[in-house]
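Dock pyridoxal-5'-phosphate; give full complex structure.
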Amino acid sequence: MEINSYSTWLEVDLNAIKQNVARIKEMTGTEVMAVIKANGYGHGARPVAQAVVAGGATWCGVARIEEALQLRRAGIACKILVLGYTPPAKVPEAIEQNITVALIDPELTKSYLDYAHINGGTLHAHVKVETGMGRLGMQPADFPPFLRELADSNVLVDGIFTHFAGADEPHTGSTLRQLKTFNTLLAELDAEGLKPAVVHAANSAAIFNFPEAYFDLVRPGDIIFGMSPSPSIQLGPEFTQALSWKARIISVHDFPAGQGISYGSTYVTSKQEKIGVMPIGYGDGFRRIDNQQVLVGGRRVNVVGRVCMDQSMLQLDGVPGVKVGDEVVLIGRQDQESISVDEVADRWGTINYEVVCGLADRLPRIYKE
Ligand SMILES: Cc1ncc(COP(=O)(O)O)c(C=O)c1O
């Protein structure tokens, strides 16, 4: 069945994303900030933003101000927090577009104050606290004086947050240590009447492992897309993977024994073999490694020979009647077989996050409601 005119494409199940967000809201009983940076974890920022809002998310979290501005241009009206670094020169746009920025450093905040003062208006901000991730954020000791300085300025601190380094590994104790540092600071700020209104910390792994880290708002990314943040966390059937990656076979040849396949002839046919071509290569975010599998005719088939930039070859002897135009599934379900993003990540020696973030822009995204 022809569903589109593409030779390869991604299918994104927006209803799955919506249901996943609704499930997170129900699980945590808090507001949800859907983290949809890096083009919505490769799924496509705008449609994903619409789906998470439909699922009940009140915030979107992104890494860069450009991502936030892109969402505003696309008509996304919910609250948006830039979780990473915002260049001071972008402060006027953040004010104008009502985008909340993260305060990650006292010196940088002074530049934000200058820009906000010159341009007028109020810059909304959440302060980021470094409690043990060893990445961005201010030290707890900086806080009371820092927040006092900002009182009555054009920078309105309406939130405070931290990020966990190992919430998927509860046995190490690292998250509990981070939480202790964070809670101590919150108590101190509360006692001085300086505690910002919105407190948040929990990423996907913490949502599963640390209910005590829910605070006012949770900040999931991976589980929104129905992916597990770690092999140690099994998502129940109430979470659905939103992504499928498909293609059509564009060529099939019966090669005699001794035919080298692809660059370097690293695979040579040992008998007469049916070899198909799928129009996918490392230019699409596929990996140039050996031992990969895809689904054709509801069966697993091997990718043979070197993966090229735009094509890869498939050993099709096990698929009776296979022909040009047949569907290939790299991620997703075909009949009784399926390949998860995690399976691909395992083959590639990485995590599901990197697989989806690496999907090339040139892959058309087809959205299913
Ligand atoms: C600051 C921050 N919060 C939340 C998240 C969401 O993490 P996850 O996708 O593991 O839920 C990320 C993602 O890297 C992040 O950097």
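Observed: The chain has a mean pLDDT of 96.
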